[in-house]
Amino acid sequence: MYFRRSGSFILAVLLCAVTPAALFGQNVHGKISGVVSDDTGASVAACAVTLTNLDTAESNKITTDGSGNYSFPNISPGRYKLQAEKTGFKLFVQQPIVVEIESGLKIDITLAVGTATETVEVTAQTPLLQPETNSLGQVIDQRAVTNLPLNGRNPIALTAMVPGVVPQGQPSAGNSSTGNPVGANPFALGDFQIGGGQSGQSQILIDGVPTNGAYLNVVTVIPTQDAIQEFKVQTNNLGPEYGRFAGGVINLTTKSGTNQIHGTVYEFIRNKVLNANDFFDNRNGVARPPFTQNQFGGNVGGPVLKDKLFYFGGYEGFRLRKGSPFQGYVPTAAERGGDFSAVGSANTPSAFQIYDATTSGVGGNPACNATNAVCRTPFAGNIIPQNRLDPTAVALLKYYPLPNLTGSPTANYATSYSTGGNIDQYNARADYALSPKQRIFGRYTQSKILSLPDSPYPGLCTDRCTETTTAKQISLGDSITLNPTSILDLHFGFTRYIYLRTPLTEGIDLSPFGGTWATLAPQFTYTHVPIVCISEANNDGHWCNGVTGGGSGIGAHDNTYSFDPSFVKIIGKHTVKVGMEYRVLQNNYYQTNEPAGQFQFDAGMTAANPQNPGNGTVGIAA
Fold first, then answer.
1. What are 447's strand-pairing partners?
2. C-alpha–C-alpha distance, residues 554 and 592, integer Å
């Protein structure tokens, strides 16, 4: 078991003691600030400035200080209306103002002399320059997240749009941070470099809650494309509130409900109709493999209590079934009975002569050394007697199909086996404005990924067998305006992550392989088909075909707890932020690659002389 507490709490206390702007909690908000002045440029004190969310009608009202300064430091991403009013001046209104995650906007207000019944409305675009933040990064807004086409609908693929981000992995093999996680390595989602840092070492936050786990910084869950409001990729010059990364930070915020009910239902379909067949499948007469991909779901958001309580929820499912072409060598029916008189499954012009290993240097045979050409007696007719067949080998043969291919120089068996998997993800969020001074939110995300095994032979896998990844995440937030210049922000998160890799033959009865196997079974981590690899020439793995056994087994159970409080104090033109992060990481992990052993048989087993370089490197490990 791996158990770790983050040291940010002690660091926060020390820094708070030596500097007025020590640490921040993880920031999912934006900021608007500026100066209110009149037509002559003189500052306007005691001016009422109101900021209203155009979608939820939530409003915040503050009064400028003696120098005309105002600041709204903790603003949820969204569209806003800014108003300023004071007796003797016309009402100032500017809208819409788009506040993005981690943005810092400076909007100065100029009041015109007049009556309060007159209005000066400004419809200028939101300023692109953000002098209130100094980090280097880019926001991927809601329009890009929702509308850009993504094969597999993985929103993290959009990080490739940001300068300084380099996706890693092999897209063609399905192990890329830009692809769908079905069938991919569990670390694929985090496999990108940011700002020259190492791949897999960046931090991802969802609504202020870390989604990286203790299991080698694995990305535990990413909300679906339609559940994300926007996100920001910060590549350099990040603030002191961020830690535990060696590259950059990706800060995501999920959608919340509004005063209007909005919903979508969708399905995206791909199939084999327009796909070309594999060249080698065509040559071997194997039909075009099946391919069916369905991605479907829906979401809805709206009000429970107008202007007060809002909801958003969604579901997305993913189903992929595709044929994976495979070619290799399997024993023929004659070879399974010990008859190697024909070429059979060897890729040679004539049959190998096989020799009896028990006759090495016996009777008239010379000693097996580097000088003698032959030191063993050949099997009569190149046939192994039935009573000499090993029972373990006979039991293993049931896992290997019979040949179905003739005339090919590279294989005697060809197939297209089914791979793919499923994803089911649920997202639910509620936002509640308890009062004009306090708002809270809660989100729950649950995701389950099933990756089907790469299994061209019954029960045997080329690498990984069945994989399941389950993640559950809870995020809670509370923002309290203590007074117009003091704001307390609290975030709590919990993530449960379980990754299981399970061999297809886990738990099988080993007694059919022989009495010794049954005796040894209690010493195994778990039972499954032993890994066997047989060579035609030494170390060529001719009868392995990349299918070496039941596959490895892995279990990772990961818990992440986080608590991130921050306090903001506005003092004139200055904003002082103090905060901390407390994180507990727990990881229970096991892995076994060959729990039932690995057995390698080289050509020397039945060669004329295993010690002679000329005669001991070619044969059949019968």
1. 425, 471
2. 7
Residue 594 is given by DSSP the state -
Res 83: pLDDT: 93
Do residues 428 and 443 touch, judged by C-beta distance below 8 A? Answer: yes
As a whole number, mean pLDDT of residues 590-604 equals: 79
Residue 193 pairs with which residues in a beta bridge?
A: 166
Q: Give the separation between CA 317 and CA 448, rounded to whole angstroms.
A: 10
DSSP secondary structure, 162-203, as one string:
STTEEE-EEGGGTEETTS-STTS-TTGGG-EEETT--TT--E
Give the CA angle between residues 240, 51, 73 to the nearest 5°.
10
Gap between the Cα atoms of 599 and 621, Å rounded: 12
CA distance 420 to 178: 17
Instruction: Please state, in angstroms and rounded to a whole number, the distance separating the CA atoms of residues 356 and 380.
Output: 10
Q: Minimum mean pLDDT among 124-133, 264-273, 299-308, 557-566: which range?
A: 124-133
Residue with tokens 């103002």: 97
- The percent of residues in the chain predicted with pLDDT above 70, rounded, is 88
The Cα angle at residue 156 between residues 249 and 318, in degrees rounded to 5: 145
Mean pLDDT score, 368-390: 91
Query: Per-residue pLDDT tens for 150-171?
Result: 877 888 888 888 888 888 776 6
Cα dist from 442 to 5, 352, 473, whole Å:
24, 71, 11
- pLDDT of 19 reads 33
Q: Are 62 and 54 in contact (CB under 8 A)?
A: no
Reported pTM: 0.82
Once rounded to an integer, what is the mean pLDDT over residues 63-91? 89
**Cα Rg for the chain, rounded, in angstroms?**
33
Q: How confident is the model at residue 517, as a pLDDT?
A: 80
Res. 126 pLDDT band, cuts 50 70 90: low
Bridge partners (DSSP) listed for residue 569: 486, 576
In b/e form, how buried is each residue of 240-251, taking b as 16+ CB within 10 angstroms? ebbbbbbbbbbb
Burial class (CB in 10 A: 0-12, 13-18, 19+), 280: middle
Q: 407: which residues sit within 8 A by CB, 6+ positions away?
A: none
Q: What span, in angstroms and rounded, lies between the C-alpha atoms of 560 and 546?
A: 37
* Contact residues for 103 (Cβ-Cβ < 8 A; gap 6+): 30, 31, 77, 130, 133, 139
Alpha carbons 91 and 107: distance in angstroms, whole number: 16
Q: Which residues of 148-186 are buried (b: 16+ CB within 10 A; e: fewer)?
A: eebebbbbbbbbeebebbebbbeeeebbbbbbbbbbbbb
Half-sphere exposure (CA, 13 Å, Cβ side) for 253? Answer: 26
Number of C-alpha atoms within 13 angstroms, CB side, residue 357? 15
Report CA dihedral (128, 131, 132, 135) to the nearest 10 degrees.
Answer: 90
Q: How many C-beta atoms surround the C-beta of residue 344 within 10 A?
A: 20
